[in-house]
Amino acid sequence: MTGIEWEEPFCGEGNNCFRLGTDAEGKAYIAVAGQENSYLVDSREALRALIAEIKAGKADHLL
Predict the structure, then answer these.
(1) Residues 23 and 44 sit within 8 Å (Cβ to Cβ)
(2) Rounded Cα distance, 30 and 44, in Å
(3) Residue 29 to residue 61: CA distance in whole angstroms
(4) What is the mean pLDDT of each run of 10 residues along the chain (63 residues)?
(5) Residue 18 to residues 10, 48: CA-CA distances in angstroms?
(6) How far is CA 2 from CA 12, 23, 38, in A?
(7) How many CB atoms lie within 10 A of CB 47?
(8) What top-level branch of life does the organism fall under (predicted)?
(9) Burial zone of 33 (CB within 10 Å; 0-12 exposed, 13-18 middle, 19+ buried)
């Protein structure tokens, strides 16, 4: 996990807290707050696209 700079946790309702992070190599990370040693990793562009799609409502059916 060395080299990942984590943002402050983003918490939805209840205990659903996630953290976003990036590293110097251009990778982006998503983890459950408190479990940063187990994360998903992809490019910053992929993370940006994921967030845009979520904001556009394309994941609402999962809620």
Answers:
(1) no
(2) 11
(3) 23
(4) 86 82 93 93 91 88 73
(5) 5, 15
(6) 27, 9, 13
(7) 19
(8) Bacteria
(9) middle
